[in-house]
Structures are given as structure tokens and as C-alpha cells.
């Protein structure tokens, strides 16, 4: 054996070629340059962001999935406009490179249209805002129904309608809507109006995808199972027996754990990137097998 000190991957290549292949190192320029070029390209690619140059607008970015997605988008090089109705929580994103924040109520048509006018173009629109009502149809008053539909589906209608025209001008655009496995995918106890609204999101997604597929527009929805977010924890604490409520949530997790907001954000990065250029009109399920 030959004693040596390896300091770089190039040293490893030198040692392997010299001692195991009897390689004439004087020919390195002729023999190894192609390999080094490939390694250089890979190194450069790893530094480049998957979303470099993309302009992304998203809602509900103050916490949970929206917050995680805003951070993930910016980390991959996107210019992100992160909106939320909660201005205080939204401030946590201030100062992060690639992110600017704006307080917007996406159920208000005038605020949504003003937001759209502020952008010359948007590459990706991510509609995240949502509300979870607990109960069956008998527990759902008309006010509960109207409020849930207003937040969960009407807000997406307003956002898509406001941002689509500029996407169509460019003949390029990408819309991601937040749906759920609790929808037309799976019937879930005590999620009547929520599941109904999320089934509507799936329908809206497929309709937009079908209507504008030949005009350069993609539209997909993300369908999570149970995600560990501040919203979920708040709903658990609001139950008469929070400890039992937590156990009930965990009992339906076939993987033995809940999904994280960051895991959903990783999927959203894929959908926002050119890696998913041939993907449209789909339900992207991330539920740990809950639907099975």
C-alpha cells in the first residue's frame, strides 16, 4: 500500500489512476478534462437555484405551509411576494433575501386586483389560504358554510381571475392551489364543509388546466393529509379533550407521524419549477398513505 494524504476528490482521482490503472498522468489534459468538465457543470448546477428568475405570489404565508413554501421558494432563487391577512405574523419574513411581504385579504376583490396590478408579470401563483370547519352537515350553519366557501374556494377564484390575464399575455403561467385529501379523494369524519370546499378546489384546478393548456398555462393542486402546523395545533387545543384529540389525529397516521409543512413545501418547489413542465391538471397527493 502507498501512504498518502487525500485532500480533494481530484487527489482521489490522481491516486486511483496512478496506482490502480497505471495511468500516465502526463496525459491528464487529454484523458481527464471531459470528466472534470462534467464535475464542474454539476458543481455549478448545484449552486444555481431551481427557481432562479421566477416571480412567485402566494397567500397565507404568515405560518404553516405558506410560510414554509415562501422560504423554500426564496431559497431556490425566486422573487417572492408573500401575502397574508395577519400582518404581525407576516413580519417574520421581513428581511429575508428574495421575499417581500404585503398584507392582503384574499377574500376581498379590490385587494386582490390591486395586488395583481402591482406585478408586471407573475410566473407562479400559489393559493394557500384556507379554513378548517369541524363537524358534520348538521353542525354546519349557513354562516359556517358561507365563510368556509369564501375563504377556501372563492378566494382562489378571485386570485386566479386577477392574475391569469397577464399570464396569458406571456403565454406562460403556473398556478398551484392548496386542496386536501379530505375532499373528493377521501371522505373524512367531521369535515363536511371543508371537504366540500376542497373538492371544489380540485374541480377549479382541473377546469383551469383544461381551459388554458394550449395557451401556456399549467394548473395543479396539492392534496396533503394531516400536516403539523400552528393551525392544526390550535384546532387540537380548542377541543374539549386536547390530549385525546391529538391521539385521534395520530391514530390515523399510517406512517406513525404527521407530515411537516416543509415536506409539503418541497413538493410545491417541484410544481413551481420547470422540472414539472409536463405536469398539469393533477392532484399531487402527499398524505403518508392516509387515503389507502
UniProtKB/TrEMBL annotation:
GO biological process terms, semicolon-separated: lipid metabolic process; siderophore biosynthetic process
Entry keyword annotation includes Transcription regulation: no
Major subcellular site: cytoplasm
Domain of life (superkingdom): Eukaryota
GO CC annotation: cytoplasm
Catalytic function, reaction form: (R)-3-hydroxybutanoate + NAD(+) = acetoacetate + NADH + H(+)
Record's keyword annotation contains Membrane: no
InterPro entries attached to this UniProt entry: NAD(P)-bd_dom_sf, Sc_DH/Rdtase_CS, SDR_DHRS6-like, SDR_fam
Location(s) in or outside the cell: Cytoplasm
Keyword field: Cytoplasm, Lipid metabolism, NAD, Oxidoreductase
Classification via SUPFAM superfamilies: NAD(P)-binding Rossmann-fold domains
A Pfam family it matches: adh_short_C2
GO molecular function, one term: 3-hydroxybutyrate dehydrogenase activity
Pathway linked to the protein: Amino-acid metabolism; Siderophore biosynthesis
Enzyme Commission code: 1.1.1.104, 1.1.1.30
Stated family: Belongs to the short-chain dehydrogenases/reductases (SDR) family.
Subunit structure: Homotetramer.
This protein's name: Dehydrogenase/reductase SDR family member 6
The species this protein was found in: Echeneis naucrates
Gene name for this UniProt entry: bdh2
